[in-house]
Design goal:
By secondary structure, the chain is mostly helical. The protein contains ten helices and no strands.
Length: 209
């Protein structure tokens, strides 16, 4: 019975993620989402309480899952800080390419200045992942493996910023790379491996003594 509830919640969140990414927060409605998901409004309200609750639940599900992954990597005492960063980059790139719809949704929200209450809540959720990256960077500094004068904040912006440019500027990115970055097969077969190699090379050169 409990599994049925989880499956239904995940199904509603999958549908809501798609609709919000296409129409934005203001353009989507809970009635539209409930109809597309094949559930009644009472069930949607029972699980999420409101449109805002549903919207934030989409982000919490994806971002929290990645945070758990980062924490597991960060807590592995059998590998070095650089090996942890290497694994984090692999997992980060895998997730942003396979969750392209979610990336569009999150970039749409974070680029808007209105709805500040929602944006602040979303920022708090995202910062949880930022702190996990910072823990690994600080561990590398403390162990003597990383340079002591690294700019931790700009390292994190470099990791997230590469993805943001590809998602937010698809026309320019496509011209630069020589293929349509909105094409899923190009993202999977060309962008994904290229991003991993690039990020690891540039960060290792900058971080490791």
């Amino acid at each position: 019975m409990e599994k049925d509830k989880i499956d239904k919640k995940d199904h509603i969140l999958d549908v809501a993620e798609k609709i919000f990414s296409e129409l934005g927060y203001d353009g989507a409605s809970t009635r539209m989402i409930s109809g597309e998901a094949g559930v009644n409004m009472a069930m949607l309200n029972y699980y999420f309480g409101s449109k805002e609750g549903l919207y934030l639940a989409i982000f919490e599900r994806k971002i929290s899952a990645f945070r758990t992954l980062l924490q597991n990597i960060g807590n592995d005492d059998s590998i070095s800080a650089w090996d942890k960063m290497d694994r984090c980059i692999d997992n980060y790139v895998e997730r942003i390419i396979t969750n392209n719809c979610f990336q569009k949704l999150i970039n749409r929200e974070m680029s808007l200045s209105k709805r500040s209450e929602i944006t602040e809540k979303l920022t708090d959720i995202l910062m949880g992942n930022v702190y996990e990256f910072k823990k690994i960077l600080q561990e590398g500094i403390d162990s003597g493996l990383f340079n002591a004068d690294i700019d931790q904040e700009l390292v994190i912006m470099t990791i997230f910023g590469t993805k943001n440019y590809i998602v937010n500027s698809p026309h320019v990115a496509s011209m630069l790379l020589g293929f349509d970055t909105r094409d899923e097969s190009h993202l999977e077969n060309q962008v994904k491996p290229r991003m991993k190699v690039y990020m690891k090379k540039i960060l290792k050169f900058y971080l490791v003594k």
